[in-house]
Amino acid sequence: MVPNRAVASRASFPSRLLTTWLVAGFLLSLVVMASLLYGAGPVSPGDAFAALLGNGPDNAHFVVSELRGPRTMIGLVTGLALGLAGALLQSMTRNPLAEPGLLGVSAGSGFAVALAILFGASNATLTTFVAQLGALAGCALVIAATRVQGLGNDPVRLILAGATLSGLLLALTSMLMLMDQRAADEIRFWITGSIAGKPLTLLSSTLPAIAVGLLIIAMVARPLAAMALGEKAAVGLGHHPGRIRFLITLSVALLVGSATALAGPLIFVGLVVPFIARAFAGPDIRKTLWLCLPIGPAVVLGADVLSRLIAAPSELPLGVVTALIGAPVLLAIVRAGRMPSL
Amino acid sequence: MLLALTDKRTGLANGFLLLALVAASLSSMSLGTISVAPLDVLGSLLGKADPMTDFVVKELRGSRILAGLLSGAALAVAGCLMQTLARNRLATPGIIGIDNAATAFAVASVVGIGLSLAPSAMALAGAAAATSLAFGLAGANGTRGYRFIVAGIGIGAIAGAATQVMLSRVAIDAANAAYPWTVGSLNARSGHSVVILSIGLVLAAILLAIINRGLNTLQFSDAVAIALGTRLRAIRILGLGLSVLLTGLAVSVCGPVGLVALLAPELARTLCRPGKVPLLASGLAGATFMVLADLLGRTLFSPLEIPVGIITAIVGSPYLLWILLKPSNRSLT
Amino acid sequence: MNLTETATLAADNITLAHRKFTVAKNLSVTLPPGKVTAIVGPNGCGKSTLLNGLARIHAPDTGTVLLDGKDIHVLPSKEVARKLALLPQDNTAPEGLTVADLVRFGRQPHQGWMKQWSRKDQQAFDHAVTAADVIELQDRALDTLSGGQRQRAWIAMAVAQETPLLLLDEPTSALDLGHQIEVFELIRQLAAQGKTVAMVVHDLASACRYADHMVAMKAGKVIMEGPPGEIVSPELVHTLYGVHCDLLEDPATGSPLLVNMRRERSDHARCQ
């Protein structure tokens, strides 16, 4: 159910949204600082701060610029991509639970990477491309599934199907890993949800795809908002639902594929971020997308900082932390009376 | 006369499943890295074989097959029970997170976190905790409706994450010892857990025979069940308790091989006559599934062994997807 | 077959609530033995809730439902099921279940976990399928039947319970006219055999035609009770449904007939 004002409202930036956006941006900058200053290792926040200002001990300098800096950048981009992808997928499937991770898109991407590695691929660009292909296949499956009669308006059945698909792909991935011990270690590096120790070159190989994804979002945001009124209404407003669906699918695949190439499959980020954004932005997908820009990176980086601190001096996998944060949000959505619809 | 007619198809189905189970078990005893001729297997079982064959058939394979058979039967009966109680084919312990929680608790026991209880007891505690949590979150709807399932998915995710946390926090040896549980394997069983599981199964069989008739009425709406004199609350609590018990004990033996709980009752329902809850057939089918999946895992890429949980996931998931994606499906929720 | 056994069912000052919302407050109703009682009233007046309360499906917050003078919620459920059968509104059955399977379920209250299908069970079964006229349908799956046939099968199950009391919740909803009459006549037959019947009926006209006793409810209260011929009046119809009508007497049966139903007191008067 979407009130008319969702579409009737002007696309300009209302002041309330601006305030929220600024607050979120401020929180994000705090999280970025925390990500640079805190770690599981022996470098103290004070030394790290000094290193940021250009002095401080050598080891602090190394840790901040060579380890935490890239890690923070990768976290920012991953969060951005996953948050937007989640919001898009939920809006298009009209299902608040449609999250790329839960629906098996991330697992598809991870499985594709595992296959590629098993067949000898090892450079970052190729891996990114393969991850995107896998995500595209996963997305196409999800879209096909939502087009099945009756499944589109049955959120639970859809995410159960997604969970099953994820389980299947994970089992296949584990089997591939059993086949080849050498490949297994590399596969594990790619498919464990983590942004630690990933090279910055990876970032440059994913940026073009993310840029294209963002461009598509800029193009289809308005027709997508119109589609919230139903496909017939969107056609009435002069849009082409089929074309929009195709573009969104492409965009989600590019974003999720890039994020998976960067950080491995992270489930629940695409659920939590749009959930928070919607709480402030209301039903208009355009406002939600705007808010996802700062919230997505903040959530991923925040989770990453937690993953360093909870179990210090060792680290937890980031995917574990996002699951621990995300699952309660899933439960909260379900607990909130009747299943909310989009 | 009428009754005999009613039960003919179900009797046939049970006979067929029993035969399949025996055949699967015998092949599993004869096939593997060392092949034993089927006649020698029979000879060994009858106590007329050389010590080497005896060792392979009884020690190596027999105990493993027994563990698979018992845990498969327990998972399947637990699944059938929960489906009946929830009136939803999808509501199996695996899907609502009970397997994962039991695994997390069992892993905690193996890696030495928390109480120093045996894996069986811990798995049971985990299963019970997840079930009560799912109920608490589902609110007054109980096992009915989607909330129960989504709550279970969330609980399963948390438990899975918790398992990973524990494995990443302990020494590599302890983690390796606990790993099989996380994927589902018959390699990690302890004889002790198998004994406890068989006791649980016997207990469950007796109780289920007693409440069987009441369970059958649960296929209708609550009102019909009450009108037929079923003590709904008592049956629900007992049934759910047994489902949790069987799942927990099975997980302590084989880990989360969840899809057996969905596939076996499905097959049993197809074979048996509608109108009765096919508990026996489900158990037989589950045992057969488990033995076959383990056999496949051992022999498919021999000498490489694929854990039984991975096999059931690869075989079972497409079927579950098919159920979920079939256009019209009136028996779902 | 005439039932020698009888049983009385009464609600004594019961209050029924869904969650915190009170649907019916301080109701007292006694079912006249051997008669067909119709519970009527507008949507949401609590008539189904009252029936479910009488059938112990819905436990009252205060007050008691008395079966033969004893609190129905204290009696063992099986014992109650031997005296009281219910045909609920939501009667879904497992896929592929046959009519015979369904009717056999009606014998459950008479079976123990050691007591299997007996000769007496078989007699009750035969009687039920005959009474509800589903003999030819016995081996058909419920989901292949028409609405009227399916409803007869469910009634057969309730009959197989061999209870002196039979409660039905909107037994003819979603049935076409022919099937409605089929079901109502079956209910009259059962009453003629000595059963005490209570049913929630949506349609006031059918209630007038087929009930001996009528309980008229509005907003959770019983506003009038008695034989339809005595209590149904244009005033009652207006109180219940907010419409005006005239009453005639059915020349064939003597039961009241509602005619000229309209929202305004008189179209003619308004025109002037």
From TrEMBL, chain A:
GO terms for molecular function: transmembrane transporter activity. The chain crosses the membrane at residues 20-40, 101-119, 126-146, 158-179, 200-224, 244-277, 289-310, 316-334. SUPFAM superfamilies: ABC transporter involved in vitamin B12 uptake, BtuC. It is a multi-pass membrane protein. Belongs to the binding-protein-dependent transport system permease family. FecCD subfamily. InterPro entries: ABC_BtuC-like, ABC_transptr_permease_BtuC. Keywords: Cell membrane, Membrane, Transmembrane, Transmembrane helix, Transport. The keyword rRNA-binding does not apply. Pfam families: FecCD. This is Iron complex transport system permease protein. GO terms for biological process: siderophore-iron import into cell. It is found in: Cell membrane. One of its GO terms (cellular component) is plasma membrane.
Automatic annotation (TrEMBL), chain B:
GO terms for cellular component: plasma membrane. It holds the Pfam family FecCD. Keywords: Cell membrane, Membrane, Transmembrane, Transmembrane helix, Transport. InterPro entries: ABC_BtuC-like, ABC_transptr_permease_BtuC. Gene3D superfamilies: ABC transporter involved in vitamin B12 uptake, BtuC. It is found in: Cell membrane. The chain crosses the membrane at residues 62-82, 94-115, 121-141, 148-172, 192-211, 237-265, 277-297, 304-325. SUPFAM superfamilies: ABC transporter involved in vitamin B12 uptake, BtuC. Belongs to the binding-protein-dependent transport system permease family. FecCD subfamily. This is Iron complex transport system permease protein.
Automatic annotation (TrEMBL), chain C:
It is found in: Cell membrane. One of its GO terms (biological process) is iron ion transport. CDD domains: ABC_Iron-Siderophores_B12_Hemin (cd03214). The keyword Membrane applies. Keywords: ATP-binding, Cell membrane, Ion transport, Iron, Iron transport, Membrane, Nucleotide-binding, Transport. It is a peripheral membrane protein. GO terms for molecular function: ATP binding; ATP hydrolysis activity. The keyword Protease does not apply. It holds the Pfam family ABC_tran. InterPro entries: AAA+_ATPase, ABC_transporter-like_ATP-bd, ABC_transporter-like_CS, P-loop_NTPase, Siderophore_ABC-ATPase. Residues 9-244 form the ABC transporter domain. Its main location: membrane. It comes from the Bacteria. GO terms for cellular component: plasma membrane. Belongs to the ABC transporter superfamily. This is Iron complex transport system ATP-binding protein. It comes from Marinobacter persicus.
